[in-house]
Amino acid sequence: MSVTDSTATGFDSDQLAAYLAERIPGFAGPLTAKKFSDGQSNPTFLLTTPGGQYVLRRKPPGQLLKSAHAVDREYRVLSALAASDVPVPRVFHLCEDDSVIGSAFYVMEYLEGRVFWDPALPDLSAEERRAVYNEMNNVLAAIHSVDLKAAGLEDYGRPGNYFERQVSRWSQQYQASQTETLPAMDSLIEWLPANLPPDDGQVSLIHGDYRIDNLMFAPDRLEVIAVFDWELSTLGHPLADLAYQVMQRYMGRDWQIKGLAGLDCKALGIPSEQQYISDYCQRMGISGIDHWSFYLAFSFFRFAAICQGVKHRALQGNASSSDAGAVGAMAAPLAELGWKVASSS
């Protein structure tokens, strides 16, 4: 991950250092803060002190959509997963007092590793690509296998009717951030509630934004050492995460968030969609998946709504990343892919 050269963070580093020194054992200033240039939601900063480095993640400034940018939920789930099989960074402190830096934030450990921004993994061999996708699949299954009671996450979301509630939520979020008419989104908003699968009772922790670029791999081996960006995590249906991850196979190579569309995945060593799903089912002990078209169409719809929110923040001037406009531009093609899946099912 890269950091910007600018030190214009929008907060007082000395005040922050004094605050953290009283709350994190071993923390001492002075500190310098630089913003990571990657990421679209919660602004993230590298804090450097004489004793080491930390990462700070905060709510963005400005007027925000209801329930968005919930850094307190991120902090809670990272804390809860510390003793689980899911690799996450350690967290040190949550601050919900806006007077410290202007918005809520939390501080976590800084990790050295590799983040793969391109799912085609151009710098790896076919064998290494297979290993990366196998590890992604394995970690996804670990997330969905977390013992909610043992982790203290039984009340982390509302059980039951997950897709019904999510379709409603993201329809409202999309409409609240709408900047133009997208006919495919209007069609999905009508189609999804009318085609909800029967509620099968599956409830697990779900990440909500499970993509290859939200994983950090070890510097010297193809093992995930941290899963990042838990802002959208909740209790829900595990197949929402699986479909969201598979969705990237349909996205264009020239998109701001790259996909795998048009590539020969077999030649590259990347498992097919069917194989990836089969491997996941085997890990989770299930025989197959019904209503796959719905889950996939929902994932396109939801991601389109997220990208529309990024576009809206960019137009307001409080986007977290300089490429927010390009991410926002993905809303329309994502909706069109989703409607193509839905209307063909």
Question: What does this protein structure show overall?
Answer:
This protein has 345 residues and is of the alpha+beta class. It folds into two domains: 13-109, Phosphorylase Kinase, domain 1, CATH 3.30.200.20; 126-344, Alpha-Beta Complex (Aminoglycoside 3'-phosphotransferase, Chain: A, domain 2). The protein is 40% helix and 12% strand. It has twelve helices and nine strands. A five-stranded antiparallel beta sheet has the order 1-2-3-5-4, covered by helices on one side. The protein has a two-stranded antiparallel sheet with strand order 6-9. A hairpin with a 2-residue loop joins strand 2 (44-49) and strand 3. The longest helix is centred in the last third of the chain and has 25 residues, at 292-316. The chain is globular and about 60 Å long.
Gap from first CA to last CA: 39 Å
Structural class: alpha+beta
- Count the DSSP helices: 12
CATH homologous superfamily grouping of the largest domain:
Aminoglycoside phosphotransferase (APH), C-terminal lobe
- Give the name of the CATH architecture of the largest domain: Alpha-Beta Complex
List the helices and strands and how they pair.
Elements (H helix, E strand, L loop, with lengths): L12 H9 L10 E4 L8 E6 L2 E7 L12 H10 L10 E5 L9 E5 L16 H19 L3 H4 L10 H15 L6 H12 L9 E3 L8 E3 L6 E4 L6 E3 L1 H10 L17 H4 L4 H12 L7 H25 L7 H5 L2 H14 L1
Antiparallel strand pairs: 1-2, 2-3, 3-5, 4-5, 6-9, 7-8
